[in-house]
Amino acid sequence: MSRCLITKAEVQSFVERCMVAVGTKPHHARSLAEVLVEGDHRGHYSHGLNRMDMYVKDIESGICAKDGEPVVEKDSAATALVDGKNLLGPVVGNFCMDLAIKKAKEAGIGWVVARGSNHYGIAGHYAMLALKENMIVRVLIFYYSSPEMCNDGGSAVSHHMCHNLPPPQGMSFTNTSPLVVPTRGKQCTLGTNPISVAAPGKDGDSFVLDMATSAVALGKVELHDRRGDSIPEGWGCDTHGKLSTDPKKVLNGGGLVPIGGSEATGGYKGYGLGMMVEVFCGILAGAQYSNNIRTWKVTDRVANLGQCFVAINPDNFAHGFNERMSDLMSIQRGMEPADPDFPVLAAGDPERTNMKKCDEMGGIPYHINVVNYMNDCAKRIGVSPLLPCDKVVSE
Amino acid sequence: MSRCLITKAEVQSFVERCMVAVGTKPHHARSLAEVLVEGDHRGHYSHGLNRMDMYVKDIESGICAKDGEPVVEKDSAATALVDGKNLLGPVVGNFCMDLAIKKAKEAGIGWVVARGSNHYGIAGHYAMLALKENMIVRVLIFYYSSPEMCNDGGSAVSHHMCHNLPPPQGMSFTNTSPLVVPTRGKQCTLGTNPISVAAPGKDGDSFVLDMATSAVALGKVELHDRRGDSIPEGWGCDTHGKLSTDPKKVLNGGGLVPIGGSEATGGYKGYGLGMMVEVFCGILAGAQYSNNIRTWKVTDRVANLGQCFVAINPDNFAHGFNERMSDLMSIQRGMEPADPDFPVLAAGDPERTNMKKCDEMGGIPYHINVVNYMNDCAKRIGVSPLLPCDKVVSE
């Protein structure tokens, strides 16, 4: 199968020009484009360019708002409730996470929830915004009052380290359209409700958990269906709520099951985690929740998603966070694996491998069908097409 | 199998007198007894009276401290780092959760982590302390500055509701002795690292998630082993890291696997969640972590566990939390179940059923072997035995 290589900059620019063409403000379009490019760069194609037409349609139809900015409705030193004003998910998400980080710098933690939001791309993007504070912290070093991080001798290295004060940890959660059947049930009443947690290690290393609380993403079931393959037991159930290895049954009237699969193998825990995400999102924020959320790809009514963004400043806790974090990951990665060909990983490692591969190739490889589909979309709205590099990648 | 019924008050008193006999301060003994009784009352016998001898031995040997109180090491409006001073886990846990609740009342959220702690019983106990604030809030109503909760007409019911202001949500996490093998690995480097989240609904109803991040508890594997039964695939692995249905292989050199089971069915998500708990506990608190934690039942060195306690005040977010929370649970419970004999539950429902059963019987039913074992322990330390009711329960 051949794939077209497209530079990150071109994907970024393409998404921006498409979104602006249908009336999105340039800085909102930029926010969306960044999240989608990041999704693809990390290898999560289901949350990247592939979904751009959904955002284009939402703006064109007016289901998603073009104008305005998110508004803080309730505010305290460590918490905020934000009205996302039905703007694009990444606009709401960036606003809330920036606010959470600001609060974490001042109060140790920031816990910000939003209602009136929309699909926001990969949850990890927001959690990782906290990691990126490394750079901001260099400029805004006066935000940190404690000098205790600079206590190892004043060498060039430690001086540099001192300017790399531990950035906050980040967390992000969103509710989503119902696709998951609770344990013992047979209707989809929960979304894939992702959990993302990012925590910084040493030397730019990090732990980045970004996972749906369903056993798998719907896209994986669809892929097996297209290939005519069966799915592993524990991914989904049929219309009677019975686990099924037939992807067609899962896709037609059945649903995904929570992590853990059946009740006997702990599926009720995944169900509980999906509910936990709903508590942090729809319930805390006063947004839509559970099966009140519009179903996937229905775009005739406002989504009003609830989302939750948390930043934690390790400086308010025990000294040496980054060193311990790196050691924790080293313990796992350094372990002898069950199969020598498959090393033990830490959350975020598969994505790092994918990003490295893209960077070495000089772009992100897209299936030709995706490029053609996007260019049809671009033509319709009068935008110049995606320009692949002159390289074709074989896989 | 016959069981002895023992009143909650007698179990509480028995644990207190045993702990005090070996030198525990009376109010510390009371804290421990409360958590153990609650564990049994909720049906989690693996975290109740059954474990008392471990605490007795820890105090007798001096591995766990008798004297002192937990100390706040770092403090901000919304966060704190606590040194548990190697006191009993429930002493540290109650101290931290009380502090988190106090902070949540003032700053919207309290995020408190402890190092120097010990086994603290069921994680749910601490998360639920936030729920119990219902009662405290009635007395300390001046803590709430916002009158917006009392806006529905002044009837007797709404007046009562107004005094039942939404209590904080609670969360609790602890790291534990290594028993879980990371995905692709073959050594136990993580504990069963539980997550607990409690959130209040209407009329005393609540969502109480209290789950290990392993597929099952070790006790369940032991139980199958004693019965000579095989275990479901996805509970544990053998010494080569391969999933096994033979409980002996899991118990002898193998280990539990994270929720989700194999890599194909999403076990890496459970592994990521176990790591997340470690980030919140050992890493943030500067306590022991991962396979540096002493192994289970090794009591010749200090545990120095890390724990994390969070309280969130729904009053700082969207109005109507309790109503939405109850509706969210009703959607799930009201769904037609796959099997009419097994209704869809919300987290906390199985425990509520167990508590109701105990309350109707007038006590907690214990296996005669447990009672005998505890009474041998009591005799050794010169304490009067557990007194069963005059009822014997058949099961």
Automatic annotation (TrEMBL), chains A, B:
Top-level taxonomic group: Eukaryota
InterPro entries assigned: Mal/L-sulf/L-lact_DH-like_ah, Mal/L-sulf/L-lact_DH-like_NADP, Mal/L-sulfo/L-lacto_DH-like_sf, Malate/L-lactate_DH-like
UniProt cross-references to Gene3D superfamilies, sorted A to Z: 1.10.1530.10, Hypothetical oxidoreductase yiak, domain 2 (3.30.1370.60)
Nucleotide-binding keyword on record: no
Molecular functions (GO terms): oxidoreductase activity
UniProt signal peptide: none
Keywords: Oxidoreductase
Family according to the record: Belongs to the LDH2/MDH2 oxidoreductase family.
Protein name: Malate dehydrogenase
Organism: Takifugu bimaculatus
